[in-house]
Amino acid sequence: MNDTFLRxxxxxxxxxxxxxxxxxxxxYLPEYQAVRAKADFLTLCKTPxxxxxxxxxxxxxxxxxxxxxxxxxxIPLEPMGMRLRFLxxxxxxxxxxxxxxxxxxxxxxxxxxxxxxFVLDTIKILRKRLRKKVPLIGFSxxxxxxxxxxxxxxxxxxFLETKKMMxxxxxxxxxxxxxxxxTTISYLxxxxxxxxxxxxxxxxxxxxxxxxxxxEFSLPYVKETIENLKSHDVPIIYFVNNCGGLxxxxxxxxxxxxxxxxxxxxxxxxxxxxxxxxxxxxxxPLALFSDDTTLKTKVKDILKKGSRAKGHIFNLGHGxxxxxxxxxxxxxxxxxxxxxx
Length: 341
What we know:
Layout: H1 4-9, H2 30-36, H3 41-45, H4 48-62, E1 67-68, H5 77-80, E2 84-87, E3 91-94, H6 101-105, H7 112-115, H8 117-129, E4 136-141, H9 143-152, H10 160-168, H11 170-194, E5 198-203, H12 211-217, H13 219-227, E6 236-240, H14 247-251, E7 257-260, H15 266-273, E8 278-280, H16 292-306, E9 312-313, H17 326-340
Parallel strand pairs: 1-4, 4-5, 5-6, 6-7, 7-8, 8-9
Antiparallel strand pairs: 2-3
Helix pairs in contact: 4-8, 9-11, 10-11, 11-13, 16-17
């Protein structure tokens, strides 16, 4: 098996910089669209054979150095007690948003084997198919990011209801965060036991917080999650979107790798997080619409700066866009491998 990705996560010597792409199993690939035509998104997530098939596609098509489980960060929220729907071109919707203590008391922490067996079955299928190929990454949303969806009822631009709860009823917010954290820990533990060889925690909306609020309302729960996973001895990646103002705090999370978005210079980010933690990132997803010469220049710059880190995993600064030409994704992987060898 090609374990370059795992070695880079641990800061070990590698022959080249490994690369995988957030949302690499997705709508930009015609092969994914063909599978997606058979089922709606939620059914695809819950059907192990189909989820495994689309997880494998970028490994075989692009030649990336890691596979990431095809699923969604909101999957654990259904068995917690919320109705989840994905509306075409509108995104996720959660019924009866959580706003009061009684709403939180009605939620339950999940039992992964009973509540999300399809996720664990998908991982088991993938480990067999990936045995001689690349490692498998499992994942979850970070507690704060999951809380925003539960409170807002979907995605949000300003997180009005979330911040209203944080600032006017902090005891209610902390009660919700604790329940989500317990679920997140059990969910990721189950993925690791099923065969995930690394896990990523997505804090997609942490960048909406001021540093002091992040320190109080988000970071303690990320730390608790990571501390409870450390005994499993798999690399833990913590991706913080819009992380420029939070890097030093994110570094204290205990993660093995800090994933950064494209809004921060990776060289400066390495200086700020230090040499004890590996880094992942951070090409702007829209750079994949540039010509090959421009793309090569951008990749070379990130690789040069990333070489100063304890370990560097090349990735986009956020998920690949559906409109991206697949050939550009292939070119990116080829450039990273060739320029870093």
